[in-house]
Amino acid sequence: MKFIPLLALSLTTSSISNAFAFQLEQHTFSSRPSSIVLSAATGTMDLTSSIQSNLDTLYRAAETKKEDSNAVYQALSDLEKNMRQLAKQDEAVAKNMLAQLDGDWRLVFTTGTAKTQEQMGKINYFPLKAVQSFRPAENYIENGIYIGDFCLVRFSGNMEFDERKRRIEFDFDTIYFLNSLVTIPLKKGQAADLGSKSGLGSDSNVKNAERNKKPFFNWISADEKIATARGGGGGLALWKRV
After folding, report:
1. What is the pLDDT of residue 118?
2. Do the Cβ atoms of 234 and 113 come closer than 8 Å?
3. Are 237 and 110 in contact (CB under 8 A)?
4. Type and span of the H or E element at 185
5. What does pTM read for this prediction?
6. What is the CA radius of gyration of the chain?
7. Phi, psi at residue 72, to the nearest 5°?
8. How confident is the model over 98-122, as pLDDT tens digits?
9. Rounded mean pLDDT of the chain?
10. How many beta carbons lie within 10 A of that of residue 154, not counting itself?
11. pLDDT band at 35 (very low <50, low <70, confident <90, very high)
12. Which of 48, 60, 168, 213 is 20 to 30 Å from 7 by CA-CA measure?
């Protein structure tokens, strides 16, 4: 699946967060020496423990918005590394993550794109109500900025999931203003151009569109509580399920 988050995050695919309900399948090593079995088991336990520690920090951040910003950033960065390692060990990680991603998510924390970090510093806890929705079965994505339940601006479009990369590529084809009072169709790549011209999006998305490449999120995790990702602009983000 926000003018500021959308263009700064989704349109620009810059920032981008969640943590993930991971399930480790049991592996057998009966043909290996016991020392190797013990080493492998210890490694798996250490990885699982590290992931859970990352998630615990992010759960608290999503719930209270009081966790230290540097600690949240570190947890996101560490979770990204740990989940990449887990995905190499367990092919089910990507499928499970996509299934968990189905739903609506409110942006809680974002580092912003590399460009916005240079201009404004890290954004950290996001002050507005920005909600992103994913419907994998329909390949549908949308993103909007709200005041209460009133939607100021919302983008919708299609998405594709690359299971190997755990990546969602997307493009918005429609923009809605003022609770859908005004609807404007968007041409291919126009959303990226709008983000760049507003100063909230990444210029790289415009160049990618010219090369027939779509904006994307590299998803880190998703579970019943939170989701996390890194956007094409380099930013990390954390969402809370709503």
Report:
1. 62
2. yes
3. yes
4. strand 182-185
5. 0.74
6. 18
7. -65, -45
8. 999 999 999 999 986 556 556 555 6
9. 78
10. 24
11. very low
12. 60
Q: Is 26 exposed, middle or buried (0-12, 13-18, 19+ CB in 10 A)?
A: exposed
Contacts of 212 (CB under 8 A, 6+ apart): none
Whole-angstrom distance, CA of residue 43 vs CA of residue 178: 52
H or E element, residue 176: strand 167-177
CB neighbour class for 211 (10 Å; exposed up to 12, middle 13-18, buried from 19): exposed
Structural contact between residues 40 and 54, judged by C-beta atoms closer than 8 angstroms: no
Taking alpha carbons only, the member of 105, 104, 122, 100 closest to residue 113 is 122
Give Cβ neighbours of residue 185 (< 8 Å, ≥ 6 apart): 173, 174
Residue 151 confidence (pLDDT): 93
